[in-house]
Each structure stands twice: as structure tokens, then as C-alpha cells.
Amino acid sequence: GFNCGIVGLPNVGKSTLFNALTKSGIDAENFPFCTIEPNTGIVPVPDPRQETLAGIVKPERTIPTTMEFVDIAGLVAGASKGEGLGNQFLANIRETDAIAHVVRCFDNDNVIHVANQVDPTADIETINIELALADLDSVERAITRLARAAKGGDKDAVTTKAILERIQPHLAEGQPLRSFALDSDELSQLKGFGFLTLKPTMYIANVNEDGFDNNPYLDIVRAIAEQEGAVVVPVCNKLESEIAELDDEERGMFLEELGMSEPGLDRVIRAGYDLLGLQTYFTAGVKEVRAWTVKCGATAPQAAGVIHTDFQKGFIRAEVVAYDDFVANNGEQGAKEAGKWRLEGKDYIVKDGDVIHFRFNV
Ligand code: GDP
């Protein structure tokens, strides 16, 4: 599966968010095939289209697709120099596909801030500097490693080393690589290094219940994110943890009272999903309607492989109905009659919402 690591300074509300995410509904027993580590939460991706499909197909069960969030606690200033459990935390971040950076945007005299004042600019910088310095360390090692080969005339080594030398000063200033202009060739040269500051990143601005408007802290986070081309999701983690405790009925009433159309967590999860460049396709049979996750740009056989590797290996064709056509024609039969049912081959690029039935050899 794809995962998003939750990072941030101590006491910004990471565990509160993580607990809300893990409580918000996945029954571990429904996912016996996943090993769930204590710091990993498997979270259903909210998608109203699934209920609409279920209303048409009337399956025995409906299964959402999921993504993972990993709680990466304890990143502090000095981590890149191995302070605290620094190296371990950086190693954990390295294994994630994307980063959700929680920033404290709430005042609360009872909750001590590590630097004694709420200061989103300084907080973001502190984390970004650690990540940049960790990348700088990788860059310096790589330059040393490549120097010999480059001297020996290895062309690839020469180009890669040149790019690394260009990004080195930027990292040395504590700046993330995502704010350094790199073209697609350069990015693909750097891919293998797994740089932390090139991972897709979003900021979770943790605000108080009344902190969504007229909140100078939130404005600061938005300004920083805009400069970096990053996304901001404002959410009140404390409120979300309360919402996550409720059963479905209570939750509906509580949200209505608050004037919210959905839990804020849903926005966090969807933002994470988008950040990872993921999209959803559906299988819709009488046994189950199920949502599946693929990378945007995945081909039909790759999508089949998400269900089972045998589906990919033995792929013959995909029967496809676009979501809107499926709904407008009240299901597969209607879509067929309306000429909206397609038979697609191995080069077909799956689109978000496609309802697919795979044909394969076993
Ligand atoms: P972590 O160290 O980043 O994991 O932070 P925690 O999730 O443990 O939160 C630290 C403290 O801040 C806890 O006492 C939370 O109840 C409190 N807290 C978290 N989110 C909010 C919030 O949105 N508003 C307020 N007022 N307090 C919060």
C-alpha cells in the first residue's frame, strides 16, 4: 500500500490526529492480510461514489480502498546530527511515500510548546532544516562516491555529480529540494536517492475549533506552503479525535450541529491520497462493490495487478464503464444498451472512477 508519514515537532497534535485517523473506522479484522504496526494506521478513503454504486448493484458488501498513515513521532532539532533518536526517525521518514507535516496553529496555555511560543514559521523551518540537512548528508556522501567514477570518465557519474553539486548549497542553507528548480531529466536522475525534501509534502495546520478564520498562524502556514507549491489542510485535530469516538448516528448529529458536511479527517485523507498521485477504480459485482487504488497513469494490466498478480500476468481485456455512465444508465446492463460499455486492451490508461471487470487467463 501507499503511505503518508505524519511528522512535526512535539506537542503540535500529531498523535491526536493519528489516533483520530486510526479510530475513524477501520476494523483491523477486516484486513487480516495487512500487518498493522502500532505506528501505522490503515484508513478507508472516503468516497461517496461507492455508496452510489452499491445503491445500483445491491451487493452483499461494500469495501472501501485504504491508505496508510504512519506516526513518526519525535523529530526534533538536531535529528540530522543524530540527536535524540534522530537517525531512526529520519530512516522512518525515508520509507514513506509522502509527508504530512503537522504545524501547531492553536494557542493553549496548558499545552507547552517546545520552543515556548507558537510560531509556525520557526516550527516549519526547524523540521525542514533537519530534513534538508539529512539530504545534504546523502548528497555529500554521493559526491564523494561518484568522484572516482567521474574522474575515470563515467559520463553518468559526471552528470549526476554535477546536479548534486548544484543542489548542495541549497540544502546547506536548510532549504527543501522541492523549492529548487529541477527539470524532469534532473528529477529522474535524483530519483534513486530518495531525498526526503523531494517527497510530496502537505501541511496539516492544526487549529482550534474557532481557528479556521482570522487565524494569523494559519495565514503564515498558507504563505509558506504557497512559496513551496505545497498543499495546506486546516483541521482541528482535537475536535476530530472527539468526532472519531462517536458512532455513526451520533457523528452525523454532531457534525450537523457544527455545521460540517463531513469530518475534517476526510479532507486530510483525500489530500493525502491526491498527494500520492492516487486514483480509484471500482469493481462492482453482486458479491461486492469494491474500490481499488492505482497510481494515476496506471494501465489496465497494472490496475488488474492490484487485485491479484495473476490478473496482471494473465490479462486479456478490461471491460470498462466510466463511473458517470454506469450511474446514468443504472448499471452495467443499461450502460451496455446505451453503448457505454467498452472493451479495452493492455495499453488502456485507467481513469478515476472507472468500473472495471477484468478478463484474464489463469
Ligand atoms: P504530538 O506530540 O505532536 O503527538 O502532540 P499531541 O497529539 O500529543 O498533542 C499535544 C497536546 O495538544 C495534547 O494535550 C492535545 O490534547 C493538545 N491538542 C492537540 N490538538 C489540539 C487542538 O487542535 N487544539 C487544542 N487546544 N489542543 C490540541
Count of DSSP-assigned helices: 14
Catalogue the unreliable spans: none
- One letter per element, helices H and strands E, the order comes to EHEHEEHEHHHEHEHHHEEHHEHHEE
Provide the helix percentage: 40-55%
Ligands present: guanosine-5'-diphosphate
Q: Main sheet: which strands, in order across? A: 2-4-1-5-6-7
Spatial gap, N to C terminus: 25 Å
Name given to the CATH homologous superfamily of the largest domain = P-loop containing nucleotide triphosphate hydrolases
Strand segment count: 12
- The total number of structural domains is 3
Q: Any guess at the CATH architecture of the largest domain?
A: 3-Layer(aba) Sandwich
Shape, principal axes of CA atoms: flat
Average pLDDT value?
Answer: 90
CATH C-level class of the largest domain is: Alpha Beta
Provide the gyration radius in Å.
Answer: 23 Å
Could you name the CATH topology of the largest domain?
Rossmann fold
Percentage of residues in strands: 15-25%
Largest sheet: 6 strands, mixed
Helix-strand makeup class: alpha/beta
